[in-house]
């Protein structure tokens, strides 16, 4: 998940390690905290595989004001995705197996890069995620039905809250799927290839 997210961010623009760490925190949200101890080994693996290159830091350039202590000049090394890295990233975004939607964390990261993903792949991932969450919902309902009489009211409310959260995710996924289907029909009406990713919006000035 981490290396996929790194490639996705570097696909958008080169970054130094400190900025990359901040962007990863936004992509991954509250799913996990990215430390330099996990970021730099991942970058080293990607560099060894030929997926990213590094530019020497400008020794005269100051570090960001909020850079953590002991970041040193390492924080100003700029990482750039290579042609091989772009091919690897597009290979990864083309995957739509259970590993892309069974795990909620990985699904969230995949969703963050949906604009790079072909329409048919997006739809398969969304439908797979909905099936996964629907199974979770049925399991929660069955568990609640079996244990309702044995639970105190606080535990019962906690289980109900969990079920409501899953219900909301199912509805949200259904809305995303409906939107994908509508957009797909519009692209077909306009003569676009069904598997094409959506048109990219022009960059902001």
Describe the 3D structure:
- With 205 residues, the protein is mostly helical.
- The chain folds into 2 domains: 2-56 and 77-93, Winged helix-like DNA-binding domain superfamily/Winged helix DNA-binding domain (Arc Repressor Mutant, subunit A, Orthogonal Bundle); 118-190.
- It is 60% helix and 5% strand.
- It contains 7 helices and 3 strands; from the N terminus they run αβααββαααα.
- It comes from Geodermatophilus obscurus (strain ATCC 25078 / DSM 43160 / JCM 3152 / CCUG 61914 / KCC A-0152 / KCTC 9177 / NBRC 13315 / NRRL B-3577 / G-20).
- Pfam families: PadR.
Helix/strand order: HEHHEEHHHH
Biggest sheet: strand arrangement: 1-3-2
Low-confidence stretches: 68-75, 199-205
Domains (count): 2
Derived structural class: mainly alpha
Per DSSP, the total helix count is 7
Largest sheet: 3 strands, antiparallel
Question: How many angstroms does the end-to-end distance come to?
Answer: 31 Å
Taking all residues together, what is the mean pLDDT? Answer: 84
**So what's the overall shape?**
flat
Gyration radius from CA atoms, angstroms: 21 Å
Strand tally: 3
Strand-residue proportion: under 5%
- Percentage of helical residues? 55-70%
Biased composition (Pro residues): 195-205
Coiled coil: 130-157
Keywords: Coiled coil
Domain Transcription regulator PadR N-terminal: 6-90
């Amino acid at each position: 998940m981490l290396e996929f997210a790194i490639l996705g961010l570097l696909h958008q623009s080169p970054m130094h390690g400190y900025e990359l760490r901040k962007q990863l925190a936004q992509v991954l949200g509250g799913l996990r905290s990215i430390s330099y101890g996990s970021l730099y080994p991942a970058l080293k693996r990607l560099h060894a595989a030929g997926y990213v290159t590094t530019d020497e830091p400008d020794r005269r350039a100051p570090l960001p004001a909020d850079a953590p202590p002991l970041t040193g000049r390492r924080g100003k090394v700029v990482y750039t995705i290579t042609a091989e890295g772009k091919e690897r990233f597009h290979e990864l975004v083309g995957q739509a197996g259970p590993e892309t939607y069974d795990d909620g964390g990985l699904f969230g990261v995949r969703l963050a890069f949906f604009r790079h993903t072909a329409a048919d792949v997006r739809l398969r991932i969304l439908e797979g995620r909905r099936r996964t969450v629907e199974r979770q919902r049925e399991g929660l309902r069955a568990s609640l039905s079996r244990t309702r009489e044995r639970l105190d009211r606080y535990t019962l409310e906690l289980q109900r809250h969990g079920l409501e959260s899953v219900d909301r995710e199912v509805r949200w996924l259904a809305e995303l799927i409906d939107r994908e289907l509508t957009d797909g029909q519009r692209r077909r009406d306009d003569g676009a290839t069904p598997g094409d990713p959506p048109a990219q919006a022009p960059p902001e000035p």
